[in-house]
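Collaborator request, handled under Task 6.
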Amino acid sequence: MTTERPEPLRVEAIFDAVVDLGPEEASLRLDVECEGDAALRAAVERLLEHDRRADGDFLAPRPALLFEALGEHPVPAFPDAPPVAARIGRFSVVRKLGEGTMGVVYMGYDEMLDRRVAIKLLRPSVAGVGWLLREGQALGRLAHPNVVAIHEAFEHEGRVYLAMEFVEGFTLRAFLAERPRTFPEVLSLFLGAARGLAAVHDAGLVHRDFKPENVLVGKDGRPRIVDFGMAALAQRDGGTNGGGGRDAAPPSGRSVALDVSILPRGAIAGTPAFMAPEQLRGERATTASDQWSFCAALYHAAYGIPPYSLDGDFVALSRRVLAGAPEIPAQRGKAPAWLGPILLSGLAKDPAARFPSMHALLAAIEAHLPRDPELDRHGIRRELVALRVALLGVVIVASGLAFRRLVHAEVTLELVILINCAAFLMVLSIIALRWRKLSQNRMGRRAAAIVVGVEGVMLVHRLIAMRLGTPLDHVLVNDLVLLATVLGTLALTDRRKIALPAAIAMAGALLGLFLPSATSLIYVAAGSLVLLLLIADVVRER
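Structure tokens returned to the collaborator:
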């Protein structure tokens, strides 16, 4: 154990590696990185405490805080870094987001395209200035919605910069912890991240540190993979490592990206809780290693516990991971039974026993989605037909009243309301009889709520009309407007095919408005056609 004053750059490098980890994972990582150096660990822990109090400076520590954590007076940490001008390349600088050993990150503004960007500016004193350009060139090939977009990689006043997509949102870890999420929500986010990871592999890269903290969920709900600071080229078939480890220089003339690690020599690439067995053994990470990390993260999100206990230190965790495959917990919550075998395959100790690629893993998961009653509307097709037949029955009852009104003038709104109440009870009875099946599926629960809501609103509407003395013809026109509004909302948010029934209902309302003498016939024709189209929409699905 040593008590020498720790190197500031070493402190900041370890801080960058653990700042986004949870308490248990951070402690494990500090065990490895500090190697019993109490002064080094204490300095990093003080810096972490500063970061927690800062409440927002989450990218990296300020130099003044770094030296304060070391017990020194603040001094210019990087005297060779000149003040940044108001512009970097063609981008206006808005404010600094944070800084680290390698450079500074700014929020910028792209005036040409009217958008905010994140700008990573490398320090002039850092050796290997081509690293950031190679990162930009590699990531620039990834035109994928689930990978953070790279807009530009160039030089400004002799300093390399990288302009990338500015994402407002949360990390996947924070998003899942914000409130309880349903399994379909969790799986949807991880499937998006898996597609992004597959695109990274297709570009010839290995992320080497996939974890929920390295996935950003934007305000649009789309997950994006970020933080390629430890990424490396995937080893091609027939390729060699040149006899070196991850820090080995690339062969001359090879167009590569991210071969220069931003971590200090000897540091472990990855986060212990998500590191594959081969990474723990010190072997080169591959695309199969990323797959293991992804399955470990999905396992934790789906079951609420990690695949291996995080109790103890790094050595204990490594021993458990290297001992063999985990088991699916007996209490698996809302996760479906088919997910377990897929995750266990991805968590296999031998990389060759895992899926051949992320695409194969995705295909294995997606093959089960149509058969999952919670995720598939086909499983409740009969129930949806029954609900819409119930609505058609309501229309038929109303149609009979409308036809009767053409012959007998004594049909009153009170009688219509009485029939409406009977129809509402009929709908509730059908839902109650089918509820066991309907409640298993998100679409079924939503459809039942919509049907009850529409029928309830129509009943209230007619009660108000009776109270105000509204003529029956006006009530029927308003019913069509209400139906068109509900269907139009569904068409915009869920089912585009419902746009046609919505348009027919609105057209019927407009015809009834300009042809009041034919309102009853129009209501019968439009209402029946709308409900028949809705039933056909379900029956056509296979």
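The cover message to the collaborator said: "Residues 54-70, 72-84, 233-267 have pLDDT under 50 and may be disordered. The longest helix spans residues 381-407. Please let us know whether this matches your experimental observations."
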